[in-house]
């Protein structure tokens, strides 16, 4: 049994200013108005500093620094074994309008991505290509650069001025350059967009969500075309994605990021015909944006010898692979601070056997969970 402190921080205000500072173990996340963040959005826990200020009634800013991991390998005497992340968000709020441009950068030591460690492996799987040309390229101890450089920019927001109609969007681009390893350059860069429209009614809020994220082309030697991630938490569904009330990242069937995928979801939220009882019903269709020719031409040579390829952050789907998901979730407020949640899910996964050279594939997945949450 391993018990450790999750949060331990101090909040204070710089004297004679309105600038707020938080120092210590704390949660970090990028903004996401559609379904949390497919880049950094668990929220991730780490040691760091957050400085926030409100410049005007409508414009504020938050600057953060986080040490995501420090391997501290005394056996190998690693010199470059840390991952530092710096981010800036600028929330702008007017009546009925919220927009938040943001930017983030990471400095990744070449000795920090140890795939035998859970945290480091999770980070490695989001910064490196989902495949490797010459075996596993992580850890990057053989890189010709001491530190890799990663950066992202994004723009999120929502419109509620047309109430009861709500529009929300998220968009981002990122690039990771981890240096050359054995003559191979495992770069990774890509983008994503997501949009959501909802109409709030008395007993239900119907909505439609669509998203698209860039995927790999058919050439593994020019790097990856997927957007890099640090600690993703795309929570559009409670089975396929990271939206479960409990243990989300450990049970999501498709993954916790939308890198290399596109999809559409029809949702009915806040279904309620009885006090203290609410339901969510969601139908979704997904398919990959990764070129199937990559798998056909190179197969196990690029490390994708499963069907579909399993990466550290989910399933690797090509443009010939598809998935259909249904979620029906219920929340019942037994008391003010005690909630019973029941989650039911079904996924049908349609994997192209010609692409993956497989004759027998598991296509159906089911989930049933009951969770009691006590807040105090």
Characteristics of this structure?
376 residues; mainly beta; Porin; 16-stranded antiparallel sheet; two-stranded antiparallel sheet; 4 helices; 7% helix; 47% strand
Task: Describe the fold and architecture.
This protein is mostly beta strands and 376 residues long. The chain has helices at 118-127, 248-251, 292-298, 353-356, and strands at 8-13, 20-28, 44-54, 60-70, 82-89, 92-94, 97-109, 147-159, 165-177, 188-199, 205-213, 261-274, 277-288, 309-311, 314-316, 322-335, 338-350, 364-374. The strands form 2 sheets. It has a 16-stranded antiparallel β-sheet that branches. The protein starts with 7 loop residues before the first strand and ends with a strand.
Helix and strand arrangement:
Blueprint: E1 8-13, E2 20-28, E3 44-54, E4 60-70, E5 82-89, E6 92-94, E7 97-109, H1 118-127, E8 147-159, E9 165-177, E10 188-199, E11 205-213, H2 248-251, E12 261-274, E13 277-288, H3 292-298, E14 309-311, E15 314-316, E16 322-335, E17 338-350, H4 353-356, E18 364-374
Antiparallel strand pairs: 1-2, 2-3, 3-4, 4-5, 5-7, 6-7, 7-8, 8-9, 9-10, 10-11, 11-12, 12-13, 13-16, 14-15, 16-17, 17-18
């Amino acid at each position: 049994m391993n018990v450790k402190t999750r949060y331990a921080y101090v909040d204070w205000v710089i004297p004679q200013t309105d600038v707020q500072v938080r120092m210590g173990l704390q949660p970090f996340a990028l903004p996401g108005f559609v379904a949390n963040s497919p880049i950094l959005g668990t929220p991730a826990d780490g040691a760091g500093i957050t400085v926030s200020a409100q410049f005007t009634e409508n414009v504020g800013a938050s600057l953060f620094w986080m040490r995501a991991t420090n391997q501290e390998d005394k056996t190998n005497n690693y010199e470059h074994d840390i991952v530092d992340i710096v981010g800036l968000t600028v929330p702008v709020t007017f009546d009925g309008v919220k927009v938040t441009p943001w930017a983030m950068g990471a400095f990744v030591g070449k000795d920090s991505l140890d795939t035998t460690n859970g945290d480091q492996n999770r980070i490695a799987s989001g910064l490196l290509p989902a495949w490797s040309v010459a075996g596993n390229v992580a850890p990057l101890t053989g890189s010709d650069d001491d530190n890799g450089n990663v950066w992202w920019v994004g723009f999120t927001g929502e419109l509620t001025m047309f109430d009861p109609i709500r529009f929300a969007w998220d968009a981002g681009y990122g690039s990771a350059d981890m240096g050359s390893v054995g003559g191979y350059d495992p770069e990774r860069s890509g983008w994503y967009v997501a949009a959501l429209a909802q109409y709030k009614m008395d007993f239900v809020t119907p909505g439609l969500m669509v998203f698209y994220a860039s995927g790999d082309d058919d050439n593994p030697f020019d790097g990856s075309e997927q957007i890099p991630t640090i600690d993703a938490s795309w929570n559009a569904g409670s089975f396929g994605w990271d939206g479960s009330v409990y243990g989300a990242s450990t049970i999501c069937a498709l993954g916790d990021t939308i890198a290399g995928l596109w999809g559409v979801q029809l949702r009915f939220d806040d279904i309620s015909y009885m006090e203290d009882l609410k339901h969510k019903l969601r139908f979704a269709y997904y398919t990959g944006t990764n070129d199937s020719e990559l798998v056909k031409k190179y197969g196990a040579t690029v490390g994708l010898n499963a069907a579909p390829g399993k990466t550290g952050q989910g399933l690797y789907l090509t443009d010939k692979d598809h998935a259909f998901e249904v979620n029906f979730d219920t929340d019942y407020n037994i008391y003010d601070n005690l909630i019973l949640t029941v989650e039911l899910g079904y996924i049908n996964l349609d994997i192209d056997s010609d692409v993956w050279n497989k004759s027998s594939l598991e296509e159906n997945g089911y989930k049933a969970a009951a969770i009691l949450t006590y807040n105090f």
